[in-house]
TrEMBL record:
It comes from Streptomyces iconiensis. Residues 1-22 are annotated as: Disordered. Its cofactor is pyridoxal 5'-phosphate. This is L-cysteine desulfhydrase Cds1. The keyword Ion transport does not apply. Its EC number is 4.4.1.1. The modification N6-(pyridoxal phosphate)lysine is found at K79. The keyword Signal does not apply.
Amino acid sequence: MIGFVSTTEPASPATALPTADVDRSDPAYRSWLKEAVRKVRAESGRSADTHLLAFPLPEEWGVDLYLKDESTHSTGSLKHRLARSLFLYALCNGWIRPGRPVIEASSGSTAVSEAYFAQLIGVPFIAVMPRTTSPEKTRLIEFHGGRCHFVDEPGTVYEVSAALAEESGGHFMDQFTYAERATDWRGNNNIAESVYQQLRGERHPEPSWIVATAGTGGTSATFARYIHYMQFDTRVCVPDPENSCFFDGWTSGDPHATSETASRIEGIGRPRMEPSFVTGAIDRMMKVPDAASVAAVRALEGAIGKKAGGSTGTGLWSAFKIVAEMLAHGETGSVVTLLCDPGDRYLDKYYADSWLAEQGLDITPYARTIERFLATGEWPGPVGERP
């Protein structure tokens, strides 16, 4: 049986679980299922909401910028919400069985959170991830009892995950398919409802823009659907890093767009158009250079004293540009983006000049753009375009 053994080696077929299904009418299974759902729901009840941090901008600009700090979840990232929803969805569909592993294709943060929930309900967990995933994320997965199965080709994580599930009799969670449907986007304390409730007392309670980067696309879909359902005028922008196909697929309308190189910004950007990326729900996309993402996340630390991961920088760069556009058009309002996970997971990457040099990334011109923007509200080049 595959157990909670801390190892980075692949699961061996010799240790695979039998593939025979459980009897879902069996009282013992029904009792286990009820207890598993209770534990996951109870965990939500023990969790406080995450903070909405104000980024310091001159008050006279008339535009306010906020970051929804998802790093304060118990597993340290935005993916905690997703993992909880995916586990409830899979449990209620009868896909997760006692004693059998949950397998996920993940670049790190989702796997950390799913390992936590797997341990909570007492089932094994295997994360299938690129070998380039940060060592700190690997440590956290193993800390929560999970196992790490590394692949050299990032594009193979899907088929490897499915194969491991088949040979073990486990369940491939498949966040890239189910992220957009597992979350209750109409409300029920999802991230979108939370943001609007937290903004009620602000001078611009209905944001002009919400900026949400995309890994699975589940968060941007939740925001966009909630906005349409509640009949708000807020627009949703999805920034995309280098080495990701989402921007090209969205602008060209090509559902088969691909990227041959893996994203350097962990947690976002994908080599294919994922099923959970709902292109029709969002209003705008931006392509963000990786060096700009790093410059932005370093500027964030200087402004509010918090380190964050590279995906936060991708969103913050785009939020800065949107604020500059609003100022250029004489508009007032608010913009919300996400602080997705803590920067201590990436000290050897986005905060290491040696890593930047290895990657050939020069953040200097982007840092200067941010400095100019924060000082004057101006953005170099044309900012008057609309989606």
